[in-house]
Specification:
By secondary structure, the chain is α/β, with parallel strands linked by helices. Helices cover 46% and strands 17% of the residues. It has helices at 30-37, 90-102, 112-119, 125-136, 140-150, 153-177, 189-218, 232-240, 283-298, 341-351, 355-358, 365-387, 391-409, 416-423, and strands at 9-12, 20-26, 38-39, 49-57, 60-70, 81-87, 106-107, 220-226, 258-264, 267-273, 301-306, 322-327. The strands form 2 sheets. It has a 7-stranded mixed sheet with strand order 3-4-5-6-2-1-7. A 5-stranded mixed sheet has the order 9-10-8-11-12, sandwiched between helices. Strand 9 and strand 10 (267-273) form a beta hairpin. Helix 7 (189-218) runs antiparallel to helix 12 (365-387).
Length: 430
């Protein structure tokens, strides 16, 4: 991938199969390439205007189109850009692209438009990654997370941390400028320690939010746990609205975990129907029970099912897990007939993590890894303040924290391999 683009690129910006298709052109010769293909616009066409035009190959009209013209820096990429809206026929789209390539364009690589937007300062790296998340969003929660990041939620949070870290660093480096005066301290070590601990607490909250963000992104795992024949599979089928799991009076029918998802109020829940927990000599059933216990450990929400005269399984839970207890085959709850299902769904919605309650939420594994590394360097600063090491060593560790955090937004020079890995997962045309 070309990280210093000087060529003009083109690609379809819409998925195939629609009634209309958009071809995006970006680069120094975007307008001249469009003029060569479309009659109805010229090199003097004003920016931020839309024009009717015809795409022609010789005297043959390929399509009648609308052409939108943007001039640098007021475009998505920050470069001269043109968008051609034509009919969605594969033949038409391919023909327009063929003509553009004949007139000096090259086909864009995955994510190359957003890469150029980043390189041209239209967005930082975390916002560029949010573009891919926005395209991939499948529910209200993931859409909200992606929009928050695209609008600079993470960038703003990191800017606050950077401001606090720079305050620490500047005070320590001021001491180094007056190193001839050994007794001179501009930075009160107790105040520095207190500030460093506050920053550490802030970064800890961000790193811990990754588990929550990942659950919202992938689907909140919900394990249905109980003894055999208490209605676990029936409950799963009711929640999904289809016969997904086999329902039988024979104990041990469910031998393995069955997974499927539903959306409730814009949040995806990933349900896991597990084998009934009991003592058994059947080795295959025992393997299913062991997988049930493993699923319970992975789940964020656990639905514990029983019925009259059947106790709940005695299994341990984590403090961060929500346990919803249901007694099936009673007046208030009957999975077979859907009685109490709406109440259960509301309990699940209440138990789910809510974005508005937690501020910025980390959803990227890359961001999580960077935050963990920055916290390791910050811990060295805190240990150094406790042990009374010199200001120059403290300042060096603080600079490490600043440089590592800058990898999230791309404030430092970002390695080409990192950029390639990020943008190679984008779709072509974005």
């Amino acid at each position: 991938m070309n990280l210093e683009p000087s060529s003009t690129i083109c690609a379809p910006a819409t998925a195939p199969g629609g009634a209309l298709g958009i071809i995006r052109i970006s680069g120094p010769d975007a307008l001249s390439a469009a003029c060569s293909v479309c009659s109805g616009i010229t090199a003097t066409t004003r920016a931020n205007t839309i024009h009717f035009a015809r795409v022609k190959e010789g005297d043959e009209v390929i399509d009648e189109v609308m052409v939108a013209v943007f001039k640098a820096p007021h475009s998505y990429t920050g470069e001269d850009s043109v968008e051609i809206s034509c009919h969605g026929s594969r033949y038409i789209l391919n023909k327009v692209l063929e003509l553009l390539v004949q007139h000096g364009c090259r086909m864009a690589g995955p994510g190359e438009y957003t890469l150029r937007a980043y390189l041209n300062g239209k967005m930082d790296l975390s916002q560029a990654e949010a573009v891919a998340d926005l395209i991939a969003s499948t529910n209200r929660a993931t859409h909200h997370l992606a929009m928050s990041q695209l609008r600079g939620g993470i960038s703003t949070e990191l800017a606050r941390l950077r401001e606090q870290l720079l305050k620490l660093t500047s005070l320590l480096e001021l001491e180094l400028d007056f190193s001839d005066h050994e007794d001179l301290e501009f930075a009160d070590r107790k105040e520095l320690l207190q500030l460093a601990q506050q920053i550490d607490s802030h970064i800890s909250r961000l790193t811990k939010s990754f588990q929550q963000g990942n659950a919202l992104k992938q689907g909140i795992p919900v394990a249905i746990i109980g003894a055999p024949n208490v209605g676990k599979s029936t409950l799963l089928n009711q929640l999904l609205g289809e016969e997904r799991a086999i329902v039988s009076d024979i104990q041990g029918t469910t031998r393995d975990a069955i997974e499927d998802t539903i959306q409730l109020e814009g949040i995806t829940f990933r349900f896991i129907d597990t084998a009934g927990i009991r003592h058994t000599s059947d080795k295959i059933e025992q393997m299913g029970i062991e997988r049930s216990l493993a699923a319970a450990q992975r789940a964020r929400i656990i639905i514990m099912m029983s019925e009259p005269a059947v106790p709940y399984p005695d299994i341990p839970f984590r403090d961060d897990q929500t346990v919803i207890r249901i007694e099936n085959k009673t007046d208030s709850f009957q999975a077979k007939y859907g009685i109490g299902i709406d109440v259960l769904k509301q309990q699940l919605i209440t138990a789910a993590p809510h974005i508005s309650d937690s501020g910025v939420i980390i959803t990227s594994a890359r961001h999580h890894e960077v935050l963990c590394r920055s916290q390791q360097s910050l811990h060295r600063v805190i240990e150094g303040l406790h042990s009374g090491i010199s200001g120059d060593l403290l300042a060096e560790d603080l600079r490490d924290v600043l440089n590592i955090l800058a990898e999230i937004t791309g404030g430092q020079i970002t390695p080409q391999e990192t950029l390639y890995n990020i943008f190679s997962h984008f779709c072509v045309g974005k």
